[in-house]
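User: Reviewer 2 asked us to show a designed sequence for the structure in our supplementary figure. I'm pasting the structure tokens here. Could you produce the per-position amino acids so we can include them in the response letter?
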């Protein structure tokens, strides 16, 4: 997928007790940039005060590295909005002044009960700075009667529902909070002999020289202070339901999910797809970059040659990844080119990781045909995407989800392929290796009841 159809909510990073906290939080967020390109920010604790640098756009535009905010603890954030408009007021980290002192907060995910909580809080006099759901946690914490921050955060987290991962910077430490089903990812790492770090993905650890220690458990709050890491449960243990789309598309291939390589898992998806949906083709081509591991797996299992029949233009301006539907169709033509020498006169098995609206796929099939492909057999390394996500992924509205409304025949006609086939939900679970995954968007039911329609 080229990134036009599905967008990750956000990426978060936190570090405690490191003299280069700002720089490491900056580079941590930099390595998570694929999770959100609308706004970015870093918050740094120095002598009991928090300074925040944030703004719209990519991290390099939003925060100048030479801002050199000093401090020994920091959190950072990259954002794509799912709830709340895309504007500077919703850029994170958010800074709140509470009786616990200043708190900075960064959030990935979506709270399905945020509208109700927000209405309640506003009725009690809370004044929100922005329109995102992330502020709800800060207001809940500020109103808790407990005298220590960890307990107040724990009790506030109990009130949240949905898929969420928070990092919170305070005078006493950095906190990490992961939703009770572990829908959104959060991992804990350590720089050897040095600071503890939290991140949405392990690729951020590699960037700052940290080692993966473990995943923050679903329903767990971790408190990182001068005495080390303390674990507090705020929800009962339940069967984990991690977002399967992290593996299919969102996470960087060099990150780990449930301890296993994303790249290798994507290859397995491709292998499984080849077993379920062989194609009468001469060459296997993947949609760069996210579908290449699945295409390699497909080629391995089918015995067909893999080749780079599509190349990505690396120099697309940010405009084309902005959340503006009018630019999407235009953007894909500029993002990808077909390699004539690979596809001309050949039957192409085109592997994509997912199909959401189908408009991107149509453009890609057209590209291959104009480069001389004799036939295009499209194979999707995930099941049909039928239901919108309510846990922090912007999948657009249900009406735009092609597989929800169209038969396989109609979908094949829409994308203009000679044939089209998807990985089955059973095949997806077999490739993922367990049933600890959220598959709600594939019609398998929402693991957290959806209270209300969000506006994202
Ligand atoms: S509904 Fe789909 S995209 Fe949303 S959390 Fe579940 S698997 Fe991920």
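Assistant: Here is a per-position design you can include in the supplement:
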């Amino acid at each position: 997928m080229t990134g036009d159809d599905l967008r990750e909510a956000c990426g978060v990073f936190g570090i405690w007790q490191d003299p280069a906290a700002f720089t490491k939080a900056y580079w941590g967020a930099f390595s998570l940039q694929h999770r959100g390109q609308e706004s970015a920010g870093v918050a740094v604790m120095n002598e009991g005060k928090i300074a925040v640098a944030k703004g719209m756009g990519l991290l390099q535009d939003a925060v100048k590295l030479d801002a050199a905010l000093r401090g020994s603890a920091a959190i950072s954030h990259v954002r794509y909005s799912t709830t709340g408009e895309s504007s500077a007021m919703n850029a994170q980290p958010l800074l709140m002044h509470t009786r616990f002192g200043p708190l900075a907060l960064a959030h990935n995910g979506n709270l399905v009960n945020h509208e109700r909580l927000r209405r309640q809080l506003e009725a009690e006099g809370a004044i929100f700075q922005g329109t995102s759901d992330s502020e709800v946690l800060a207001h809940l914490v500020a109103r808790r009667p407990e005298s220590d921050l960890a307990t107040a955060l724990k009790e506030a987290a109990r009130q949240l529902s949905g898929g969420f991962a928070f990092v919170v910077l305070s005078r006493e430490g950095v906190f990490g909070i992961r939703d009770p089903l572990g829908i959104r990812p959060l991992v804990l790492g350590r720089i050897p002999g040095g600071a503890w770090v939290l991140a949405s993905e392990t690729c951020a650890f590699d960037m700052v020289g940290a080692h993966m220690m473990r995943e923050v458990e679903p329903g767990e709050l971790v408190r990182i202070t001068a005495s080390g890491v303390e674990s507090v449960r705020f929800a009962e243990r339940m069967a984990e339901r991690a977002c399967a789309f992290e593996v299919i598309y969102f996470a960087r291939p060099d990150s780990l999910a449930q301890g296993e390589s994303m790249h290798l898992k994507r290859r397995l998806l491709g292998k499984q797809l080849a077993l379920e949906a062989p194609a009468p083709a001469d060459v296997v081509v993947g949609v760069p970059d996210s579908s290449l591991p699945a295409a390699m797996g497909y080629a391995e299992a089918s015995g067909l040659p893999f080749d780079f029949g599509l190349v990505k233009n690396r120099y697309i301006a940010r405009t084309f990844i902005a959340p503006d539907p009018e630019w999407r169709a235009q953007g894909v033509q500029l993002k990808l080119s077909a390699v004539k020498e690979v596809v001309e006169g050949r039957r192409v098995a085109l592997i994509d990781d997912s199909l959401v609206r189908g408009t991107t796929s149509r453009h890609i099939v057209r590209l291959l045909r104009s480069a001389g492909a004799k036939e295009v057999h499209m194979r999707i390394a995930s099941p049909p995407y039928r239901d919108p996500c309510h846990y922090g992924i912007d999948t657009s509205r249900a009406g735009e989800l092609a597989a929800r409304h169209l038969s396989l025949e109609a979908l094949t006609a829409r994308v203009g392929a000679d044939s089209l086939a998807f990985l089955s939900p059973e095949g997806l679970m077999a490739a993922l290796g367990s049933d600890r995954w959220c598959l709600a968007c594939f019609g398998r039911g929402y693991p957290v009841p959806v209270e209300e329609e969000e506006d994202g």
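For the response letter, you might also mention the following. The two ends are 21 Å apart (CA to CA). The first helix runs from residue 21 to 31.
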